[in-house]
Amino acid sequence: MATKVVKKESVKEEVGKAGSSVKAGIISSLKGINEIEAEIVSLVRNTVSNALRAAGSVAGEGLEITKDVVKGAIQATEEVGTGLILSTKNVAKGVVMGVSDVGGDVVHVASQTVKGAVKGAAEIGADVGLVARRAVDGVIEATKETGGNVEEVARVAVGGAIEAAGTIGNTAVKAVREMLVGVVEGVKDIASTALPKSRETASAPKKTASPEVTSKRSRRKGA
Length: 223
Prior knowledge:
Elements: H1 2-55, H2 60-80, H3 84-101, H4 106-123, H5 128-146, H6 150-166, H7 170-183, H8 190-194, H9 211-222
Helix pairs in contact: 1-2, 1-3, 2-3, 2-4, 3-4, 3-5, 4-5, 4-6, 5-6, 5-7, 6-7
């Protein structure tokens, strides 16, 4: 009996060690992922801001640079074979922060960045809806950190994603809409402005004059 008890305790101890080992390994891996994400944001941000400063303009050049950066990120993930979903958010965030650094139009570039991500995802057969969501997450996060108009950026980013999906097909539009309904939660009034409006306003009852106003009108007529 004593031997069996010792064995059970030994098994429990080994299981406990295995659980602790896995926990430590996961924590270490997640820390590594966070560091990689921060590096991607920093790389993209510095690349975009330096390119815009060298160009001496943040208008037309800004749009072209954004397209090139997003395209480069997609090509990189193709070569590695994975990580598109992970990198999309960080690339989008870095682009917006880079444009913000040089005083560019963050709202405009947010829309263009999301469009580029959606179209790029479609070209390589990736999950368009998920890529759209990650891109929108990235531009919103960047806007918060740079002190921009989060509501406006979210609105145009969602609109840009749906517009880009429209050039791909109805299935893509549906996938993007479904994904972005969750993204816009927590951003004041975005859902009602970016997504299709209901017809409640059209069927709203007309306001009628109060009894007090009606009685005053009757007195005037009788006077």
